[in-house]
Amino acid sequence: MATPAWAADGTWVGQLPRQTIVVADHALESAPVELPASMADAVIERVRWTFRLDAPALTLKTWLCHGQFCLPLARNRGETQRFADRSASLPFRLRFQWQPGEQSDGRRVIFGGQLIVDYRH
Question: Is the pTM of this model over 0.70?
């Protein structure tokens, strides 16, 4: 579980877990990124994310998930309002799928990730 870096005035910042991604036929999920209990009655307005890869992985598919809703990510940095009006009480997760066939050693590390959630009560 990630510990929030800070929480104040409608914005929460947390660290995404470091994750090793391996080639697999099915999607892999990160550990949940729990928002603070003080946000249990809050509603999401906007979500921003950033993370880095230790080396390029051209066939890596990535999603940001909140509950059962998963948003495909085209880049390792961005923002969206697609989670707007959803309860902030549910955790976020990253979901990854790295397709077989890419020439490499078969694993990549996602690190330096951050999730920023703007919310309202």
Answer: yes
